[in-house]
Design a protein that fits this description.
mainly alpha, 2 domains
Length: about 90
């Protein structure tokens, strides 16, 4: 009888521990989007505040992003062309 009570108490403590862990994970999950948004805002403004002309720095970053997009577009078109050549050779 006493052994069963001890096992029951142990199971109850494990359940309580698991519930506490689940609650902590739920809180972490709720806070993560705000944490990421704050990190993103800090990253975006990090170099802008250091620059004498934040607008120029922002425009430079836009140009770099546009160049990266163009490069990706060129790579995609190149891959499509390669696939079309392979498909044409198989006919």
């Amino acid at each position: 009888m006493q052994n069963a009570q001890l096992q029951n108490a142990k199971l109850e403590s494990e359940v309580l521990l698991n519930q506490t862990k689940a609650q902590a994970e739920a809180v972490d999950t709720q806070l993560k989007p705000a944490e990421l948004q704050a990190s993103l805002a800090a990253s975006a403004s990090k170099y802008l505040s250091d620059s004498n002309n934040p607008t120029a720095e922002f425009e430079r970053r836009i140009k770099v992003a546009n160049l990266a997009l163009k490069e990706k577009d060129i790579d995609t078109k190149k891959e499509i062309a390669n696939l079309q050549v392979v498909a044409a050779r198989q006919k």
